[in-house]
Amino acid sequence: TVLGIIAFAALAVASARFLPYALAGLRTQPDLFLTVSVATGLALAGAGSLFTGIPLALAAFIAGLSITEGPVSAEARRRLRPFRDLFAIFFFVAIGTLIDPAALLGHGLGWLALCLVLVVVAKSGVIFGLARLSRLPADPGQLAVGLGQIGEFGFVLATVAVARGVLPPEVYAALLAAVAISIALSSILVRYVRRGGPATTIAAADA
Description:
Number of helices: 10
Number of strands: 0
Order of helices and strands: HHHHHHHHHH
């Protein structure tokens, strides 16, 4: 397992180094530029899952991180933005369909409350404190609210954990509900918790 992870990390680093050179030569060919960008991410995720035993969702997350550095990759992100928005919609729909109301009853509601409290205390509170200490040019409260959510990586880890039998169904259902609630609330509240003006609001929401 350790050797597989090391091999996948080496492959991800090599892809991150090679991809910008490949995309730089394809800037004048938009279709091929887009195809190579998508194919590289899919191939890297598939290799991580097939040859190293890493769960596909986690391998895809790592693949996305490894190929999104540099100015050329930034251009690839801009061209992939419509696809990102489409898959973001699919992500939220998938979250909604996976939530089991029956599993939330009883102990599930307690786990849901615990997850939401941990997001507020352990994530929003830490972000607020760090923003104040580092004196970022943004409203600390707004930044904490905008980033105070369970993101896609938490969902990926939860999916891996439930597939391995680590998380019981009621905890998984509570975590899925916390993902949906925290993202929805932070997206709404970040527009009202503001002292830095509209520009700060947009920056925090995008972050």
